[in-house]
Specification:
Blueprint lengths: L6 E5 L23 H10 L2 H8 L3 E5 L5 E6 L18 H6 L6 H5 L2 E5 L4 E5 L4 H8 L7 E5 L4 H4 L6 E2 L3 E3 L2 E3 L1 H14 L7 H18 L13 H12 L4 H11 L16 H6 L2 H8 L3 H17 L2 E4 L2 E4 L4 H19 L5 H17 L21
Helix pairs in contact: 1-2, 5-15, 8-13, 9-14, 12-14, 13-15, 14-15
The protein binds iron/sulfur cluster.
Length: 385
Amino acid sequence: MSDNQETIVMAAPMLNYQCNLKGCCCKGWGIPFKPEGVARLAGAMPADEAKERLNWGMEFFVNDKQEIERIELARLPPDDRCRFLEPEGQCEIHRRFGTDALPDLCINFPAVPYHTGQTIELHYEAVCPSVLDQLADPTVPYMPTALSAQEHPEIAIRARRPNKRPVMHLGQAQLQWPQMETLRNTVLTSLQDLQRPAIEHLCAISYAFGRLRQHGDPQRFEIRYDEPPEPFYDFLNTCAHAHSGLALIQLWPAFKRFVWDFDRDDPKLEHLEHWLDHWEEPLERWMIGQEPALRPLLVRFLAHRYFSAFVEVRGELIFAYGSIPHAHALALRVAAALSGALERPTDVGIMKAALGFADYIYRGLKIPVSSLPWFEPPEADTGAQ
Ligand code: SF4
């Protein structure tokens, strides 16, 4: 690790992160190993065993230069699991050969390391239920913390091979990393206020970024809470309607393995598709009154998303802030639909599942965020000079 990789920046609550050891991220989806990760895995095993266990069911994906970008290993029935995942949920490679034998993704997940130029940042993916557990517990304020890689080897191992950060554009403005950090700290400082509903925070932050996209001057970035909310709420409503119930219900089976707070196979969830199309009624009936209890999780989830600025799409890092209102709106819709189907008020467990599902759709499935509309403040409220 070189000098400038000795400081790791991460969100303070993630210092308490611990995997639930239930194997939920090792099944149900294509696991994109890098070629060197597969080579490391093969090298750890006796040669005969490596030949027998790796010499079948390998799918190679190449980039524009015809270089192998990733390898996916055929998964096993009945639950589409990695061939090395043991029935009790433990990884056989980890158990037999230790952490160093694992592909990077298996060591890092749910953290993704990024090089900022000065430090390595670790961003944690909220599809992981143990990440959501940390967001639901407001004990540790959601702010960045810097730590020494030497003093935290268990965290430094996740930061060993960082991604390069991308160029960040906001409308006309191209942001340098120090500017980006300042903007982000302004947002995170606002989000320390857990007394204010998440939707008011999101409205004020969306106005602030909307104005920045128009005037392009990071020094004039300002989060205010006095702008008319209606245009933003109209935008959020459009975001919530972006997917059909049919499209969402087709993605739910692959996601639900991350749900541990309620019975994900409850027969009542057979009607989930109906409620995904008719979510306004359970939103009124089951969710609105629960907002104070859900507020810390929702506000801290926003902080988590604004802390994690990037998402990887087809091997390229994309600046991801444009997707945050979309994911928030979708999470509210899904939580309302889950409450409608389960016939009970939206609690923190339901909201965690909904936030994880929205994160899975907007980050896990890697929808190109450049294709999503951003909130545009009405001209009169831009503050442009
Ligand atoms: S190799 Fe181990 S950690 Fe990696 S996906 Fe397979 S079971 Fe999970």
